[in-house]
Amino acid sequence: MGQSSFAVVTLFTNHMDAWxxxxxxxxxxxxxxxxxxxRSLLLLVAMAGLCWFGFALNDFYDAPFDALDEKKAxxxxxxxxxxxxxxxxxxxxxxxxxxxxxxLPFGLRGVAVLFLLFGVAWAYSAPPLRVKSRPGWDLLMHxxxxxxxxxxxxxFILQLPWMGVDFFAxxxxxxxxLAAQLEQQARDFEVxxxxxxxxxxxxxxxxxxxxxxxxxxxxxxxxxxxxxxxVIPAPFIPFFVIGAPSFLHRFVRRPSQPRSERLVNVSxxxxxxxxxxxxxxxxxx
Length: 285
What we know:
The chain is mostly helical. Helices cover 79% and strands 0% of the residues. The longest helix has 29 residues.
């Protein structure tokens, strides 16, 4: 594989954990509402593509900061390929046009969601707003738009009625998203404190670590209540079993030890495979 081909593959597989999770979340909403169809699966792909766009845009604006740290630089495409970074704005413009065509079949609602997320992605990552560097707002953006939004947006775009399980799912996903962002800020604390400002830098690493454990414990409790009460449909309980090792690792690792990226990746891959099984069963079963 040539360098240019490798660069393209790397670009579109970057942050696969994020856009796979987005696809799984959107698929969950579709299965709950029995809305699997070629049209709805197109929406799933479009939502995953929009997630990729947001994370890639964040990497583009983070490249000067990530280059200061070897580990963060390894996961930033634009640090590895500075030649392509020169054409970053053209890349995002062309990707944005493709996303417009992907969301057009869903009418005004689809286009409205798309442009809302375009604005959110820009405001979060790019100057002058760069909300990710504004303590409190950084967490609010993640809670609202990272994991809970794909579920809610799927219902909104397809004009599906909200049920009790939907409200439960959105609340749960908001907590999962908050915990994930706190965990990431704790992991990057030393590097970010040199050139950034965020919630964890403001309140301190130890406070964030305690808050992470509290939110994780609340999330686990909520899942247990949901499973016992039957609010969580039985086919979706395995997702929480798959994610349990990553959650429990937060309680047993040393304060100075970051999250296990291998454990996270295994959970995402396993969850993606199980989601594919659910899709197959619901389409052909």
